[in-house]
Structures are given as C-alpha cells and as structure tokens.
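This section describes the prediction task in plain terms. A model, or a person checking by hand, is given the sequence of a single protein chain and must write out its three-dimensional structure as a string of tokens. No templates, partner chains or ligands are provided. The sample shown here is typical of the held-out split.
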Amino acid sequence: MKTTVQLLSVFICIFIFTTSSSAFVHAPKVNSAVEQSQTITNNDLVDLSRKELETKMGRKLKFGERIAIGIVKRKLKQERKRAGNNEPGEVKMDGLGIAGFVCGVVGIFTFGLLSILAIVFSAIALGRINRDPERIRGKGLAIAGLVLGVLSVLLLTTLIVVGLLIL
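The expected answer:
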C-alpha cells in the first residue's frame, strides 16, 4: 500500500513537471461530473493499453505522460507479482522458515550435517518476514531454525575439539 502511494505521488510529480505552467492558467474549469468520469484507478493503468487510456481520458497523452505511465505500470505489475495470489488480507507461511526449522532439527541428530542449510534458510526467511510482515508469517519457525542450526554447529565443533584433544 505504501509503495502504491509513493508510485502515485511520483506519477503526479512527473505529470506536473511535464506540463507547462501556462496550461494551468488558461485551462477551462471542468465540471465535477466530468472529472469523476475521467478517474483512472491503478487497475486501469495496469490493464488498459495506451489507446484505451487515451479514449478514457478523452485526449492523447503527451510524451512525458506516456513515459510516466509506463514506469508506473511496471511498478504496479511488480507489486501485483510480489503480492502473488494472496488476497489483500491473506497471510502466507514462509517456506524457507519451515525448511530452516526442519534442517535445524535434523541437523542436531546428524551432528551438524544440515545445520549450515538451516542457518542460511532461516536467515533468508527472517529477511523476507521482516521486509513484509503483513503478508508473510513464520518468524518463530525461522528463529527456531536459526538457533537450532547454530547449536548444532557448536555441537559439531565441540565434538571435533574434544575428539582432537583425546587423541
């Protein structure tokens, strides 16, 4: 949501800078009903082609506006892709957090065989979860996987040191 607002503000700034100041002085007053019919949503920007946007607006787009719309379209598509198939209120479990936890548990019983993977998977999962906590959950599993991975690495190093001291 925050990035969408930022993108729209960038689009508005680019639009204002590309239009000349004299256009605002000589522009006729527009009826509020006409303004409401020309409202373009984010979905319109992504889904409609340039020609369809021009017909909806009732005028041709200037070069700077076309560039700005192209940039905003790309960012909105990236946002949609990043959101995935989730509905706005849906929260999904991070798979790497689960994988890190499983590798951490197995790493303890295998004397650190999978502990490095547990540390890596859990660290990546924590980064993802901290970046987008509204959409991704599983922070507890990721932290547990990280702790188990570190503990199994410490267990492995302790066993190696003790084994070398005995020999």
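For orientation: Confidence is low (pLDDT under 50) at residues 20-36.
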